[in-house]
Amino acid sequence: MNKNSYIPVWDLPLRVFHWLFMAAIIGAIISGKAEQLWLHERFGMAVMGLVGFRLIWGFIGGRTARFAHFIKGPLQVLAVLRGILARRSEKHIGHSALGGWAVLALLLIPLWMAVTGSFSTDGILFDGPLAHLLPGQGKLFAELHEGGEPLLFLIIVLHLLALAVYWFWLRKNLIKPMVTGQGQAAAEQAAEQGAGLSASRQVFGLGLLALCLVLGQLAVAFKPGLF
What we know:
The protein is mostly helical. The protein has a single domain (4-221), classed as Fumarate Reductase Cytochrome B subunit (Up-down Bundle). 67% of the residues lie in helices and 4% in strands. The protein has helices at residues 12-33, 37-60, 67-70, 74-85, 97-118, 138-147, 149-169, 175-180, 187-193, 199-221, and strands at residues 4-8, 182-186. A two-stranded antiparallel sheet has the order 1-2.
């Protein structure tokens, strides 16, 4: 094996999730601002289904996709911050300890928006796809949904800023591995930290992803009053 090798970093189901998640969030924001609520709820339920998949995949996915691989304590987070300030690129494969907590925020804040939106109502023209399950609470959920919007924009900006810091400060491209699935690693790391996943498990992961998306859309298709 060469001193530096390209090894699997992100499994295929995770990469498909990542780009669909990005598209769903962008679609939800644009459709919401354009007041196309029928489309907004579709994107919102797609976000919910995608987060559901990611939470499951965080326990059964490839090595680097698992929460146990990147959710670390405060000492490890501080070590990563010191490394960034010192302009040292991390030697690990996958999310850093700091990136791990960012991943949780990037999952939980959109999930909050999707859940509160699905139970919300304006009392006149729009009911979320799950609003009928908690009648009388729709306006409260609408307020919670609106209140979460600044947090959503904040975490998006921080994510983009982190990508810029890694690109310009650490000279590390975080986007390419999420497209190709491959990342460069030292020989001693390759045997220990790769994210290789068998073809059958990748097919299973893609099927699970599709199922979660379908379940989210079914909530919209069968909501009361649609027909």
